[in-house]
């Protein structure tokens, strides 16, 4: 699974989860959909500390016991337990759901592990969004959907065989659009009709159930009125064709500030009645210039309340919960995403002590690379997963969210 900062598609982010919270063990608490960033990479020999051995062996198969029963959902997890239990999910709970509402998972062709996860945990998802497609404008009233070479029809058939309730809604990115392309679209109902027809035709031909639209962030918060008009038109036409519409939206509060984001309450109020769900990008909070947590819990809550203070449409908000991590260098202001397999390598090769920060509800630890200085790692743990679930069910969220929804990245750690 993987997505990138701009939205659930590109390669490193949000719904770009990294590591595989132990395939099942970490996925267990809530059918969090994880998307992993396309970035990866293993530790080089220079990163390995020569002193001390590697941490204990790994369990290779599923378990019959919940992670809670195995004492793994704690504020002070041990590296050896994470390494040992990373692949040991509870086999008896792979189809059991913890929410009545929708759960969206992104899957990317550059991380095959996402395909494997959906085969195992397909029953936990209501929407699966493969990051396959792009829509391009080729000329006057001429639109082409590209990316068909990535479509895996056999995989879709197998997932549906295991769970006939799951709906496939591929992410479709407005790719390589110029400002003139947008102007043409905004100023012509015929252009909008042709765009819609291209999407409907693709959905019917490939047996998709709808689309996840990634377009809002492409204009950097500009031309909102026009975007709302186009999205409303697309939604109505897709619904007429019995197709679902999920819109990717940036956070309502800019990370690291109290400033409004590129998508606000007025936009939300106009689109909430016409789309089936919003995929809210509540992740990638920190960066190399401002190191810190990936998705601080208070910020996530504030973003939701900013959009829907009266809780009228909470059932349509899919919270983006990161299952990837970030590494920050203490010298030079460097940062890089970290996926599952690298996280495990670091835990094997370094004496990492996880520290739980109650305020942000995330774990972090530091380690020293050979000739590379000290680095700080923020990476999601089972405790974070549990706290995210509690955020939805406590403090009135169980009441305010008639249907709790969680969206993330199916990025297991691998």
Could you tell me the number of beta strands? 16
Measured distance between first and last alpha carbons: 11 Å
- Coarse shape: globular
- In DSSP terms (H or I, runs of 4 or more residues), the helix count works out at 12
Strand order across the largest sheet: 4-3-6-7-8-9-10-16-1-2-5
Q: How big a fraction of the residues is strand?
A: 15-25%
Radius of gyration: 21 Å
Order of helices and strands: HHEHEEEHEEHHEHEHEHEEEHEEEHHE
**Mean pLDDT, rounded to whole units?**
81
Please characterize this protein's 3D structure.
- With 414 residues, this protein is of the alpha/beta class.
- The protein has 12 helices and 16 strands.
- It has an 11-stranded mixed beta sheet with strand order 4-3-6-7-8-9-10-16-1-2-5. Strands 12-11-15-14-13 form a 5-stranded antiparallel beta sheet.
- Helix 7 links the parallel strand 7 and strand 8.
- It is globular.
Topology of helices and strands:
Blueprint: H1 22-26, H2 79-85, E1 103-107, H3 113-121, E2 127-130, E3 133-139, E4 142-146, H4 153-162, E5 167-168, E6 171-174, H5 179-186, H6 189-206, E7 210-214, H7 224-240, E8 244-249, H8 265-271, E9 277-280, H9 297-307, E10 317-321, E11 325-329, E12 335-338, H10 340-349, E13 355-357, E14 362-369, E15 373-378, H11 382-393, H12 397-400, E16 406-409
Parallel strand pairs: 1-2, 1-16, 2-5, 3-6, 6-7, 7-8, 8-9, 9-10, 10-16
Antiparallel strand pairs: 3-4, 11-12, 11-15, 13-14, 14-15
